[in-house]
Amino acid sequence: xxxxxxxxxxxxxxxxxxxxxxxxxxxxxxxxxxxxxxxxxxxxxxxxxxxxxxxxxxxxxxxxxxxxxxxxxxxxxxxxxxxxxxxxxxxxxxxxxxxxxxxxxxxxxxxxxxxxxxxxxxxxxxxxxxxxxxx
Length: 135
Description:
The protein has 135 residues and is of the alpha+beta class. It has 6 helices and 5 strands, in the order E-E-H-E-H-H-E-H-H-E-H.
């Protein structure tokens, strides 16, 4: 095994030239494992997007890099919590905590997808399609 090479700030170790410095998940969340004081539960399929009055550049500059990365991903399109975790290459638990911070600050909004019980009946949809084809 090769020794890690130190580059950059004292105390930071680069374990791979392409990977960059290693940052532990608990460092990103400040040791927290639950999102915010309200203990909001983010399902994997919950949809996240930027709030109508999202953060300005001044507010966003005060956020950590992981918070900013999540905001940037949400800025392009509405995404689920699972998609955000995959795209940001972060553990889902970390993404939930970071989203809790963003939600509490009013930077994002979270919506639940439509429950299957509230979706239209398949029979009704087939009748609509048949009616459209008859036109």
